[in-house]
Amino acid sequence: MNFVPKHPRTAISGALFDAAAKVIPGGVNSTARATWSGWTPYPLFVAKGSGSQLEDVDGNVYTDYLLGLGPMILGHRPPEVTRAVVDFIETRGTVFALPTADEATLADKIVAAVPSVEQVRLCNTGTEAVLYATRLARAFTGRRKIVRFEGMYHGFSDGVYWSKHPSIPAAGPDSSPRPVAQGPGLPAGVEQNLIILPWNDPEVLRAVLKTQGHEIAAVLTEPVMCNTGCILPEPGYLEAMREATREAGALLIFDEVITGFRLALGGAQERLRVTPDLSVFAKGLGGGFPVAALGGRREIMALVSDGRVSMAGTYTANGIAVAAANATLDILARPRFYGDLDAVSDQLRHGLQAVFDAAALPARVVGIGPLMQVWFTTHAIRNYRDAERFADQGLFDLWWRGMLARGVLFHPGAYENLFVSSAHTTADIEATLDAARDVAAELSR
Ligand code: PLP
């Protein structure tokens, strides 16, 4: 591996942050990069990325499991994607406000890949795609309420930016949480269209669909909970969700912004074998370029076909996004792609668990494929409240700092994930496990 400082010097990052904070609120352009999201005393400023490695402006090089919070499934600067985008820009342009043949090529690939998707529309971000999915569900069913789960994140639009990480017990009883706005500025009253539930509890969901089903347009869920660390669905839970929504005449929306094109070419729905009505994709789809998609059953998408539900946008399906997604999907569709990605990811997950076990640390490494997080607890974590009650955030912070100091980068938040890319090698994982052994020894002292 490259230079791995024991104590990274980050003075240039610090100076850049001070300068940025004068003109950019909080010094950063997304909450997840802010000091209050864990990047203390300041976030690292990036010089460049290459494959599985990221270099900061002070010249420290890290093995990168942050991976842009998910889009870099092929690692940084994947040559085929870069070339496709550059070719498109140089020979054809960027934005036309008219369709290109490439868009239908991309739609064909998505429809072929994802079990539930018969038709698909592009947009730019996961936030937009979720907004459209919920609008479409309301239009299709003629109902107004959306069920969403405490601890999940579905983007920052007013309609769903509730109960992401509320404080407990102020958020109400475990089985019937009340909606809590994710900060001021959300219009009061919007929450009357939401029902907040604990995840991984089929009985609570069934009961709500039974009593309030006539008002519920959709159940919106990540198929794997990725915004409160990594929490897997318990066996039968997604199936119960599918059955109960169908009985109630409500739609099932999978937010596959993180899981899509990551757990399999057909996303979590292929890997876990549960078929939603509508699905939302983003991060993995574009190989690092901003593109998202909403797809689903033809009869629901028909509302978009005839313009009853509008999906618009100056930049939707722009040339850069479409070229990047077409090139990315061609790579993801190669026969050994997911087998190889899983193998290297499993090496990390099992390796980390073995390191913690050997050090007698109370830690569980939970994940599926190239997606994982470490919970510092001996309790099983089934939902957000378990995480709040049982996970040791202080220990996570020490773990994060120890790993960063040894050249291993991931998000400082225990509720984020470690991502693995196809650029990560067995040698990368071995070096990461060496670092983890060192840190675990320190933590168990
Ligand atoms: N849905 C999920 C599950 C996400 O994790 C995110 C972002 O992290 C979003 C939606 C929002 O996507 P975007 O940041 O592209 O707006």
Structural description of this entry:
Its EC number is 5.4.3.8. InterPro entries: Aminotrans_3, Aminotrans_3_PPA_site, PyrdxlP-dep_Trfase, PyrdxlP-dep_Trfase_major, PyrdxlP-dep_Trfase_small. One of its GO terms (biological process) is porphyrin-containing compound biosynthetic process. Keywords: Aminotransferase, Isomerase, Porphyrin biosynthesis, Pyridoxal phosphate, Transferase. This is Glutamate-1-semialdehyde 2,1-aminomutase. The protein has 445 residues and is α/β, with parallel strands linked by helices. The protein folds into 2 domains: 11-77 and 336-444, Aspartate Aminotransferase, domain 1; 79-332, Aspartate Aminotransferase, domain 2 (3-Layer(aba) Sandwich), CATH 3.40.640. 38% of the residues lie in helices and 14% in strands. It has 13 helices and 14 strands. It has a 7-stranded mixed β-sheet with strand order 4-10-9-8-7-5-6, sandwiched between helices. Strand 2 and strand 3 (61-64) form a beta hairpin. It is globular and about 60 Å long. Bound molecules: pyridoxal-5'-phosphate. The site of pyridoxal-5'-phosphate has 15 residues, from helix 4. Residues 125-127, 130, 153-155, 222, 226-227, 255, 257-258, 282, 292 line the site of pyridoxal-5'-phosphate.
Number of strands: 14
Kindly estimate the percentage of residues that lie in beta strands according to DSSP. Answer: 5-15%
- CATH class category of the largest domain: Alpha Beta
Question: Kindly state the mean pLDDT as a whole number?
Answer: 97
Number of domains: 2
* Sheet with the most strands, sense and barrel status: 7 strands, mixed
Number of helices: 13
Oligomeric form of this entry? Answer: single chain
Could you say which overall geometry the principal axes of the C-alpha atoms support? globular
Enzyme class: isomerase
EC number: 5.4.3.8
Protein name: Glutamate-1-semialdehyde 2,1-aminomutase
Keywords: Aminotransferase, Isomerase, Porphyrin biosynthesis, Pyridoxal phosphate, Transferase
